[in-house]
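Revision sheet: structure tokens.
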Amino acid sequence: MGRSAVQAGEKAEAALARALANQPNRDGEAFTEATERLCEMRDALIGQCRAGAGSEPHLGRLNAVISSAMTGQFPLGKTDWILLETARSALHSLLDELRDLATP
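Predicted:
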């Protein structure tokens, strides 16, 4: 897997960690950065899939993380911190898998 997807994912994970560390206050800047980096990661994975080097299951899992992270960016009520921690954990696992694939 390409390094650019992993790099963007690492930045997204750090931003989600910052957002979670500030709870119960909502850190809009951290959520914005997380969303932007997750979308960069998604774009990199899409490019890899189109080039025949990506994995659609990884892309599907990342889309689930993006959907969950967006609940912090645009909550429809109280921020669901447990869902956001689950998204950060899922992203961490996905990044571990992508790093393993990148290691020869």
